[in-house]
Specification:
The protein has helices spanning 2-11, 20-23, 51-59, 81-89, 107-113, 137-140, 142-145, 165-186, 202-207, 218-228, 249-274, 281-311, 318-334, 349-359, 362-375; strands at 38-44, 68-75, 95-100, 123-127, 151-158, 198-201, 233-243. The protein is α/β, with parallel strands linked by helices. It has two domains: 2-10 and 276-380, no CATH class; 19-245, Spore Coat Polysaccharide Biosynthesis Protein SpsA, Chain A. The chain has a seven-stranded mixed β-sheet, with helices on both faces. The relative contact order is 0.15.
């Protein structure tokens, strides 16, 4: 009960509703000739179903041909992705394609690092192959992109939320993640990158050493290194980046295994630095609180359930479990409904109930992944990418 009260005291304020001015940049028209240049980076491995949609979307961005360059890495694809990119490159001078062999190392980080020596822009926009953004994205973000002292993360929206119940609750979960991150930042905590829709100042990225090729979650790893180098991360509600949610239990399970493994590994890799004077005390408190909430609490819950079954007794950690569910319910209740891009499903009634049920799966998968990491050497782990099906015709 004491642990639940102490942890809840820190995390509950982060579930508060942010005002429109806090959650989104004001729609200010940019100057006729923006002073900053943007390089868009995409690592694409077997993305034939979505790659042409992505390229057409990116080439429609309004920013000026000299100020915007698109770089796509064909990361050893065997499904025709490389051929599609080569065809498109012949028609568009601002599209640059780099091919990596199938045996290339470093996963997504290795693909992104292959492009870094070629970049000249002020900002690096990293997108996934299934991303879709508003053509006026850079115009809306112009006030924020004038300041390169911090990185930016766009809210991740789901364009296939109506596919089934699983995609619907994932759309809600992503909105909650953005809301809570904005709350953390508002209370002097840390924002985090989410892989898709991240704007990184190129010079800050180079100072951090580029993307870490020893991790399977490049975004979470880079988040820690940016924070340690004094580069904060802002999180933007509007405009979002739209992506495709996994539509089956198996795909969600594999995707979340990778996220959890990379999320845990960053703490194992960087804990001495996180405890050092390089991180301000208020940031240390925030990192500790959300480490306990996201990774330790599910382990406690799993152990509590097993113990209750074996010893035929009542659960002991029910205050922590109750606090976590109340925190999630509070965030659901306060989740903003005004947004651009794909709509966020209304967080009421049945959707709220199913989202609360859905988040409980983390209490099963996190202990299993933690056990696997303890038993299996790091170098033997494999990258398991999410398959994308693409938008339907006319969407």
């Amino acid at each position: 009960m004491v642990a639940a009260l102490l942890l809840g005291r820190h995390i509950f304020p982060t579930a508060g509703r942010q005002t429109e001015s806090e959650s989104s940049p004001r729609p200010v028209l940019p100057s006729p000739a923006p002073s900053y240049r943007v390089d868009v980076l995409v690592a694409a491995k077997n993305e034939a179903a979505v790659i042409e949609q992505l390229v057409n979307n990116l080439l429609a961005l309004r920013h000026g041909e000299e100020q915007l360059q698109v770089w796509i890495v064909d990361d050893g694809s065997v499904d025709g992705t490389g051929e599609i990119l080569d065809r498109l490159q012949e028609c568009h001078s601002s599209l640059h394609v780099i091919h990596r062999p199938p045996e290339a190392q470093g996963w997504k980080s290795g693909a992104l690092n292959a492009v870094l020596p070629h970049l000249q822009g002020d900002w690096v926009l990293v997108l996934d192959a299934d991303a879709q953004v508003d053509p006026e994205l850079l115009e809306h973000l112009d006030p924020l992109l004038q300041d390169s002292s911090r990185a930016l993360q766009l809210r991740k929206a789901v364009h296939n939320a109506d596919c089934n119940l699983l995609t619907r609750v994932q759309a809600v979960e992503m909105a909650l993640d953005t809301l809570i991150q904005q709350g953390r930042i508002a209370h002097q905590g840390c924002g985090e990158l989410r892989g898709n829709g991240q704007f990184i100042p190129r010079q800050a990225l180079l100072r951090c050493g580029g993307f870490n090729e020893a991790t399977i979650t490049d975004d979470l790893d880079l988040t820690v290194r940016l924070q340690l180098h004094g580069v904060p991360i802002a999180v933007v509600w509007n405009p979002p980046v739209a992506e495709e949610a996994a539509s089956s239990i198996g795909a969600i399970w594999r995707q979340h295994q990778r996220w959890i493994e990379g999320g845990l590994q960053r703490f194992f890799d960087y804990w001495p630095a996180l405890l050092s004077s390089r991180l301000k005390p208020r940031l240390k408190r925030d990192v500790l609180a959300f480490f306990l909430l996201q990774y330790v609490q599910p382990l406690v819950l799993a152990g509590d359930v097993v113990g209750a079954v074996l010893w035929r007794s009542g659960p002991l950690a029910w205050p922590l479990t109750t606090m976590t569910l109340l925190f999630t319910a509070t965030a659901l209740w306060r989740c903003p409904t005004r947004n651009s891009g794909p709509p966020v499903p209304a967080t009421r009634g049945f959707t709220t109930l199913m989202t609360l049920v859905y988040v409980l799966h983390w209490s099963l998968i996190i202990p299993l992944v933690a056990m696997g990491m303890a038993l299996k050497p790091k170098q033997h782990r494999l990258w398991d990418k999410t398959l994308h099906e693409g938008l339907p015709a006319g969407a």
